[in-house]
Every structure is written in structure tokens, then in C-alpha cells.
Design brief:
Blueprint: H1 7-14, E1 19-23, H2 30-37, E2 43-45, H3 49-57, H4 59-63, E3 70-73, H5 81-91, E4 98-102, H6 105-115, E5 120-124, H7 130-137, H8 145-151, H9 155-160, H10 164-183, H11 189-200, H12 209-216, H13 220-232, E6 236-239, E7 255-258, H14 261-267, H15 273-278, H16 282-300, E8 308-311, E9 317-324, E10 327-334, H17 345-353, E11 358-365, E12 378-380, H18 391-394
Parallel strand pairs: 1-4, 1-5, 2-3, 3-4, 10-11, 11-12
Antiparallel strand pairs: 6-7, 8-9, 9-10
Helix pairs in contact: 5-6, 8-14, 11-12, 12-13
Length: 399
């Protein structure tokens, strides 16, 4: 067991708010983290049928057993419970009294924001960062980029040394059998699974709902509902485009990524690092990996993961835009191991078209050695091995 990067933010907020809500994908380590940081609190799993029945049928009686607080795991399983917690924390607003965890972001956040507005801080825990896997494995980690992407970052795989192919197959099967039944009535599971695999085939690409619907054999409305469902259950993330007031020529559709790049690899049928290296989607998978590292870093620091991409109608693109002091730091992500002059085209275009908005930028690529350039520094993916992927690491002049 290792200390998670988010621990400091979680402990800090527990000293300020009576309730802290920790959400994130299944198997991202929420329960383990809550137990580790709050060992003196009762840990109550609402997945257990008898406990859930008690909390659902008699919430006041259930909560009366935890007047001094508790960790309530998978709170979305009893959706009315936050409403009853509201009265308890209003009567006794001691900081850090209750810790809530949950795996369904939209459903959970709606309930929590309605019932506990102003009473709870909210954090999101995603699977391991690359730096966390390095700390867990120590010198045993072989820093092979394609193997890292293939394995993904679910803690259980790294903690138990599981075969990622089998573990990710089990993860997806559990998702289909459990989460889908809780969240929505998906009657055609075979077609839904095809839809998810088609999403993996579009990793790092602009979302085209009509294409997804046609290739799956479902209506546009169904495709939209299924895409929303995948977001709700922390399978995919849609990265929005960056807008300006005068941006009529900017694209309006989001780009599609997976919260765990290993799951995307498994859905694509990739089973070895060699297959990952040769796959036509390697560029999109590498981009997915870097994007999620940046998101995890911001979330682990308790920062709103405000991230965008930039693309104009002429195809000039910057893969990742991060806010820095009211402006935007641009990161171009390239899987190639050799720096190409074309890597800088999108950065130059954004800086020249939006000089007031630009806070600089860099290239992050799949090579092993970074380069010092006068305009746009180049960083290797290996810079992420021992520290989080924050914008500070990639700003010009960073050590």
C-alpha cells in the first residue's frame, strides 16, 4: 500500500468541512484510501445488502448509530441518505465528521450537491498516476512505455501483480453486469459492448455521434444516451474544445478519451507491448495516457481539472490547454520517439492567433531524452516517472 498523491488534499479538506465526498471509478482506490486516512472511523459499506436495506428503510435509525461520524462507502447505493445527513451536520458541524465515497459521478454529484451544498468538499480519485506506480514497484518497475500503456493504472493490477488482460476483462464484465443494471436499462448488451469497443477505436479523436451510431446499428439518440452513460460511470472522458468569443472557425465537438488507457487497449484487443507499439492508434493511446496524467495531477491537488484542446478549421491543433494565471499553457503530445519540426506547428499557430491568451507551451513526446529549445521546450514522457505531470514541470525554465 502506498500513500496516494491526493492524500494531502483529502486530509486538508477534512479539517475544514463536516463532509468530504470522494468519487471516482470503481477500483480506483477510494475505499482503501479512506480506510488508511481515517482508521478511527467506522467503515460502512453500503454495497452489503443488509446494511443498504437498513439505511434505505430507516435512514434516521441507521444514522443514529454514527453520531460521531463514519466512512460511508458507495453512498450512491442509498441515494436519499445525503438528505438525512444534512440535518445531522447542520446540528453538529464538526469538521471531518463524515467521509462519503461513490462511483457514479453524475448521479452521486447531483444528490450530494442538492443535499449537502456548502457542507461538503468534493474530490475525485482516478487510478494511479505513473509516479504512484513507480513508488509502488520501486526498482522493479521496467520503464517500458508500451507495457505501461498496455497495463493501465488500476491499483489492484499493480498491488497484486495481476495479468492486465485478465484483470481488465474482469473489470469490464463487472461493469456491464453491475453498473449498467444500477444506472440504466441497456437491453442489448452485445450491441452496447460493440459501442464501447468502437469508442476505443476512436480514442483521441473528435466525437462523431452519427458515425458511432451507424457503425453500432443504433439510433443517434441511443448513441448519445450510451455516451452519457459511459461518462457517468467513469469509463470515458470527453475533452471539450477551447473557445474564444470570435471563434467561429473553431471546432465545436469534444474529443474522446478513456479514464484508463489500459482499458482502452484491452477493448482494442491489444494483449502485448509489441501489439501496442505497432497499432495504428498508438498516437491516440499515448495522447490518452498523457492527458490523464495531467488530469490526475490537478485532481490530486484539489484543483478543478479545467482542460481543453485547440483546433481550428484548417486543422491546426494543440492537444492540451491548461489554465495558468488567466491565460493558457499549450501542450502538444506526440508519441513519436524522434522530434519532428511539425510537432511545433499547432503551438506556433495558437500563439500567433491568440497572443493575449497564450502563456507559452511545450512538446511532450515518446522519446527518452528531452531537448532544450528556444521557443518550445521538448520533454520526454520519462519526466512523469518520479513526479506528477503538473504544468510547472513543463513550463519554460522548469528544472
Amino acid at each position: 500500500m502506498i500513500e496516494r498523491d491526493i492524500a494531502a488534499a483529502l486530509l486538508g479538506l477534512s479539517r475544514q468541512y463536516p463532509v468530504v465526498t470522494l468519487t471516482g471509478p470503481r477500483q480506483s482506490g477510494k475505499s482503501t484510501l479512506a480506510k488508511m486516512l481515517f482508521p478511527g472511523k467506522p467503515f460502512v459499506s453500503l454495497e452489503e445488502p443488509d446494511v443498504r436495506r437498513f439505511a434505505t428503510e430507516d435512514p434516521r435509525g441507521f444514522l443514529s448509530g454514527y453520531v460521531d461520524g463514519a466512512v460511508f462507502d458507495e453512498i450512491q447505493r442509498v441515494p436519499d441518505l445525503p438528505s438525512y445527513l444534512q440535518g445531522m451536520v447542520d446540528a453538529d458541524p464538526r469538521a471531518g465528521r463524515f467521509i462519503l465515497t461513490g462511483s457514479h459521478q453524475f448521479e452521486l454529484m447531483t444528490r450530494v450537491s442538492q443535499s449537502l451544498a456548502g457542507r461538503t468538499a468534493i474530490l475525485r480519485l482516478l487510478p494511479f498516476t505513473l509516479a504512484e506506480t513507480q513508488r509502488m514497484a520501486g526498482t522493479q518497475l521496467t520503464p517500458d512505455l508500451h507495457r505501461i500503456v498496455l497495463t493501465g493504472f488500476y491499483p489492484r493490477i499493480h498491488d497484486l501483480g495481476l495479468d492486465p488482460t485478465q484483470a481488465l476483462a474482469d473489470y469490464f464484465a463487472t461493469y456491464v453486469e453491475r453498473d449498467l443494471r444500477q444506472l440504466a436499462a441497456v437491453h442489448d448488451l452485445q450491441r452496447f459492448e460493440r459501442f464501447v469497443r468502437l469508442c476505443a477505436g476512436r480514442v483521441g479523436q473528435i466525437v462523431n455521434l452519427n458515425s458511432l451510431a451507424n457503425d453500432t446499428g443504433v439510433s443517434h439518440v441511443t448513441a448519445r444516451a450510451w455516451l452519457d452513460l459511459l461518462q457517468t460511470s467513469y469509463i470515458i472522458h470527453l475533452l471539450p474544445p477551447w473557445f474564444t468569443n470570435s471563434g467561429k472557425r473553431l471546432i465545436k465537438s469534444p474529443k474522446l478519451y478513456f479514464y484508463d488507457v489500459g482499458l482502452a487497449c484491452w477493448l482494442l484487443g491489444l494483449r502485448t507491448p509489441e501489439q501496442v507499439m505497432r497499432d495504428p492508434l498508438w498516437g491516440g493511446l499515448f495522447e490518452n495516457f498523457i492527458l490523464m496524467e495531467a488530469m490526475k495531477d490537478r485532481l490530486n491537488a484539489g484543483i478543478n481539472p479545467l482542460m481543453y484542446f485547440y483546433r481550428d478549421s484548417e486543422g491546426n491543433e494543440v492537444d492540451l490547454m491548461l489554465p495558468v494565471d488567466g491565460r493558457w499553457y499549450a501542450i502538444e503530445i506526440k508519441a513519436g520517439a524522434t522530434v519532428n519540426p511539425d510537432y511545433f506547428k499547432g503551438l506556433r499557430t495558437f500563439a500567433s492567433h491568440h497572443p493575449q491568451a497564450s502563456a507559452g507551451g511545450c512538446v511532450l513526446f515518446g522519446g527518452d531524452q528531452g531537448q532544450t529549445r528556444s521557443d518550445w521546450p521538448v520533454y520526454s514522457w520519462r519526466s512523469l516517472l518520479c513526479r506528477p505531470a503538473s504544468t510547472r514541470d513543463f513550463e519554460p525554465g522548469a528544472e
